[in-house]
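Team,

Forwarding the record for the chain on the shared tracking sheet. I've put the sequence and predicted structure together so nobody has to dig through attachments.
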Amino acid sequence: MTTFTVTVAAGKFVIDGVSQATLNLTEGQTYTFDQDASNATHPLRLSTTSDGTHGGGTEYTTGVTTAGTAGSSGAYTQIVVAAGAPTLYYYCSSHSGMGGQLNTATAKSLARDIADAGSKINVLDDLTASASEINLLDDLSRGSILYGNSSSATAILTKGSADQVLKSDGTDIAWSDAASAGATYAPTVGTNTFSTNFNANMSSQGLGDVMATGWAQIPVFRGRDTNATNNAKGNTFILTSAYTQTTASNYAGNNNGGVATLSFSVVPSTRTVTWQSNYNRAWYHTNYNGNIHSTTQYFTIEGSGQMGSNGYTVMGSQSSHQFNIVNYGFLDNGGFNSESSAQGSGNGLYSNGGHREVLPTNDDANGYIANLGYDLSNSRASYRIMTINSSAQYPTMGSMTQCHNTTGATSRSIRMITQHGIYPDSTNDYPLQIWRYDINGSYVAQTLNHTGNVSNAITTGFDPTRYQGFAFLLMDGSTPVVMMYDPYFEASRWTQFDQAPTHFPNAVEGGWLPKTQMMNYGQGGFVSTGVENEFMCFDYIYPRNDIYSGQNTLKKFKINPTNGKFTDIYYCDIDNSVAGWWHRSNTLYAHKLFGLYGDDGNSSTLTHLLVVALDSTYHKSSHGAQVIDIPTASDWKAYPAN
């Protein structure tokens, strides 16, 4: 006999803790619905019609016994399910809309026979298995299995994804990707498509005999794609290129430097890349005999179609290099829209090079960015808050603000790596941007939140001797957290933007680490797979000049959101034989990796990869882009110790 505990909450019957539960009954078995004090005025009755007499049906009485008054001690409704009994419905005889469905089975399992007789099934002797747990056998679906869970109770483990295998960590089991002993990664790839020759294209438009200044001043990022619900997963991409006059043009006295932009679009299903035909000139300067560009730093929220920068450049009426800020806005198709600038000491900023992403506040890729550097007027680390509205022409910018209590000029913005669809609110007010800066020789932190507020100096929760790094947005249950890593991979877990993080100095000690550059550009790129807290990365920005490891690989890994440890680590070897990854590759080509999420950008999981190769040959500067299929489960090889 099975007894169900019946309560009433929010005007509904709650069966064993589940509101309006659908139950499975078996012919010949006895079931008792025990009605406690919360059932007062709610007699439970059965019918062959949904909602019983309230739905135009009649009370079902075959094999049914009622006792007592609902809400009183000992009150119950009991049924011995008759052979051939129809689907039944429980309902309140006094009030409509309270009940649910009772499915009736024509046969019962041997396991239930044994359980109902009070006997044991020997293979379950070492589990705490009640009759109701053994009855789970009746609920097994194709491909699922019965196992003992972490509470030593009987439970169902649903089937995994295609090609996955059961994996044990020595304590529990779970489905996991197969660890191949030697599968060769041989992806299907799209046509390797290249942008137009930079010098030839600019010259043909009458924009001068000019050349690009190198990959360190060619950021590439996601633009605004109106087909995608989440802009950060769209298929429009933008790059901007700093340029200067060629040597011949310089000798002829024709000075010309500036920034040009170019975009391309991707169709993942056909693995097609289409480049914009012509470069657009964003701004230029013709009165400086030399290269107007020095170090430049770039800031984006991926998918916003906007970018901010700061650097040591010559622009406007300047005759020498100054600290300048330039903000850029782009159209929905990636074309250049407009720019604004803040020039010179007290207005502009300067810092190291690199491309720093910031986390978004919503699917439109809106938010705020602290354009960070140091102010020449006082040699202090400072910032100007940019408001990113993806529908605006370009970012708007706040006033110059000195970093809280700073005593020096050094500052670095931490690169923020997102998981799509996770956003902050007043409860989960995690940092969207973190930066490190100097107070009396210690590198402290300030952070930016989803309303544009900036914290005071945070002095604990990390090693104060280091100031570079990157951070991942993770989910810890239902709580978003930000896990920051310094160059020694000491982890710091942030939950609130204005509170010190929890420091885990030894979380990854002795384990695998992503062999990526901390500082330069995009570190090869981290890609969110759509599986919670799982990412892919390409080991190094230069695929043929890897100073960290002898073998380039594509990595897949998860991050433990409680302590920052890297887990579930897999790799695919990438050498000259693997299509897509080595196209036109030499030490002058820097690579960046992007994830693609379907033709409309709305897939919840990764569908393809995009590799962008940035050409540093100054005159030609013809950049490559290629769509590559993601590895199958059997392509991945497990690291020896996960």
